[in-house]
Structure formats: structure tokens, C-alpha cells
Amino acid sequence: MRYFGLPSIGNRCSVPYVADQNSQLQGLGKNPSVAALILSSLAGGEKHGYALVKDVEEFSGVELQPGTLYEALARLERLGLIEALASQDRRRPYRLTGVGAAELSAHLTAQQRVISTGQSRLSRDWSFT
């Protein structure tokens, strides 16, 4: 079973998502789209919290608040989707695991189906001028 929602990320914006009930991303509570943003960022290489926030903001326009970020990082780590690395200083880098990459791929595939359907129906049935 799939569900659709429009979770709020802080007070900044909402990001639609679709998740499969068997997906580990569903276990991330009301903001699985935050997890997708974080996993997408880490797919590009390991990063610490501040670098994650800046990267996510750059590619998505979403500004993650610290509480949202660190709560999601803790859940992602607990699920084995990311892992914390040893720190050289006080910043703690994270990296995507193989399981995390597979979950992100499945999540993005589900998202793409919704996007394709929505775009197709809009172009067929609506005119924006």
C-alpha cells in the first residue's frame, strides 16, 4: 500500500512524497521527504551537518532547520541508511550506506511515477497561459 502526503519542513515549504508501505523511509515519521533530501545529498559524498544543509538548500531550495536535520540523521542512522564517520574535529560527517542507496533509489522511482502521471495529465487536460 502506498500513501501520499504533503509534509511541512519547518515553516519554509512543503514537499510532496509517495512512499511504499514496506519502505524504510516510511519509518521516518511525518517527513520522509526530508530523508530523501538528506540521502540525495549524501549520494554525492560524505558530509557533516552544515554541509548537508547547504547542499540540500542549493539543489532543492529547501532550508532544513537544525532540529529537523539532526532528528532525521539519527533516524536514518538507526535504520542503517547512513553511518556516522569518525570526526577529525567537532563536525561529524555522515555517509550513505548500500541499504540507504537502495532505499533512495526505490523512493525516487515511486516519486518519478507520480511526477510523470501528474505532468501527463496536466499537459493533456489543462492549459496554462
Number of helices: 4
CATH architecture: Orthogonal Bundle
How many E-type strands? Answer: 6
Structural Rg: 16 Å
Strand proportion? 5-15%
Name of the CATH superfamily: Winged helix-like DNA-binding domain superfamily/Winged helix DNA-binding domain
Overall number of structural domains: 1
Characterize the main sheet. 2 strands, antiparallel
| Portion in helices | 40-55%
CATH topology description:
Arc Repressor Mutant, subunit A
Output the strand order for the largest sheet: 1-4
Element pattern in H and E: EEEEHHHEEH
Overall pLDDT = 82
Apparent shape = elongated
| Cα separation of the termini | 37 Å
In the CATH scheme, the class would be: Mainly Alpha
Characterize the structure shown:
With 129 residues, this protein is an alpha+beta fold. 50% of the residues lie in helices and 14% in strands. A two-stranded antiparallel sheet has the order 1-4. Strands 2-3 form a two-stranded antiparallel sheet. A two-stranded antiparallel sheet has the order 5-6. Strand 2 and strand 3 form a beta hairpin. It is elongated. The N terminus is likely disordered.
What features would you highlight for this structure?
129 residues; alpha+beta; Arc Repressor Mutant, subunit A; two-stranded antiparallel sheet; 6 strands; 50% helix; 14% strand; disordered N terminus
Quick overview of this protein structure:
By secondary structure, the protein is an alpha+beta fold. The chain is built from four helices and six strands; from the N terminus they run E-E-E-E-H-H-H-E-E-H.
